[in-house]
Amino acid sequence: MNSVQTLSLDLAALVEAVGTGVVRVEARRRAGSGVVWAPDGVIVTADHVIEWEEGIHVGLPSGDTVQASLVGRDPRTDVAVLRAEATGLTPIPWAPPDDLRVGHLLVAVGRPGRTVRAAFGVVGTLGSMSPARAGSEADTYLEADLSAVPGFSGGALVDAGGKARALTTTGLRPRGISGVTLPALRRVVDALLTDGRIRRAYLGVGTQPVRLPAPMARRANQEEGLLIVGVETESPAERAGLLLGDTIVALAGEPIRGVRELLARLGEAQIGASVPVRILRGGEARDHTITVGERR
Fold first, then answer.
1. With contact defined as beta carbons under 8 Å apart, do 212 and 280 qualify?
2. Interatomic CA distance for residues 218 and 165, integer angstroms
3. How far is CA 150 from CA 63, 120, 176, 246, 283, in A?
């Protein structure tokens, strides 16, 4: 048997094994896929697969179809969690994407019908999901060099060892198949299982990074800040006295040089908390206190 035949057999065995943890999700006109997250019926799928929030059904690997309810959804990360009326399901083993490189083999496994479907390709891109999508610090997303086959969204992108590296979606990136990787996925799933939604901190400002003039940079001990280009009416920022044209240089005692740092400082734990914010206005540093809100 040559190496190509061996690879073919190995891939078929991999898809068969992973397929025991991939289900069909019927929540729109065309069925999508889902991944078994826990044996007690917790299913993770792509948010855009869920068009109907009632009357959802899940097609199991056994061939049975069971009812499912929507636990919660997060359009920003394109993740939704269902609870199927089933037990004893087989979760797929997951691994973070830390050791993946562009060019590594990937298999997309979905179940848009009664049987599994698979597509074979490579890691095309490893990128950083923006903090606004990830919820706090940036997470990695995958782009796979695979055709965006209808019904694959909500399935699994698995590596050559049979471990899931991302939840398959076509909802985050405009080109083909991409995937939400484990760090962001776990955080979102845990939050949805606990609260049914993602709680995100909110200041109510539009910002853009700017370089500080030399005298201001010396005074603030940093070269960049965030210029406020918009303040929403009745927002935490407006109530705190922040104005259009102010430059944020610190929040909660930590320097703010860009949007990524600002969002990383605004986790769920800060919602409702009063935190100090330092701004530059008219060349002078000013300290305000802002009560962090929750985005609705």
1. yes
2. 45
3. 20, 15, 11, 47, 55
E-state strands within the chain:
22-26, 32-38, 42-45, 56-59, 65-74, 79-84, 105-110, 117-129, 139-144, 156-158, 164-169, 178-181, 201-202, 205-211, 224-231, 247-251, 254-255, 274-281, 284-291, 293-294
- What are the boundaries of each domain within the chain? 1-198, 201-294
Task: Please state, in angstroms and rounded to a whole number, the distance separating the CA atoms of residues 118 and 139.
Answer: 26
Are the C-beta atoms of residues 293 and 202 closer than 8 Å to each other?
A: yes
- Evaluate if residue 9 carries a pLDDT over 50: yes
CA dihedral angle for residue 140, residue 178, residue 12, residue 6, rounded to 10 degrees: -60
Length of the chain: 296
Report yes or no on whether pTM surpasses 0.85. no
The arithmetic mean of pLDDT across residues 229-242, rounded, is: 96
Joined together, the tokens standing for residue 40 give 């007690």
**Residue 267: exposure state from Cβ atoms within 10 A (0-12, 13-18, ≥19):** middle
Q: List, for residues 179-235, the tens digit of each pLDDT value.
A: 888 888 998 999 999 989 888 888 999 999 999 988 888 878 899 999 999 999 999
β-pairing, 79-84 vs 42-45, is antiparallel
What residue type is assigned to position 220 of the chain? A
Closest alpha carbon to 247 in 218, 205, 292, 275: 205
Q: What is the pLDDT of residues 115-129, one digit of tens each?
A: 999 998 899 888 765
Report residue 179 CA to chain centroid gap: 9
Instruction: State whether CATH 3.40.50.720 applies to domain 1-198.
Output: no
Burial class (CB in 10 A: 0-12, 13-18, 19+), 143: buried
Angle at 54 between CA 51 and CA 58, to 5 degrees: 80
In CATH, 201-294 is 2.30.42.10 = yes
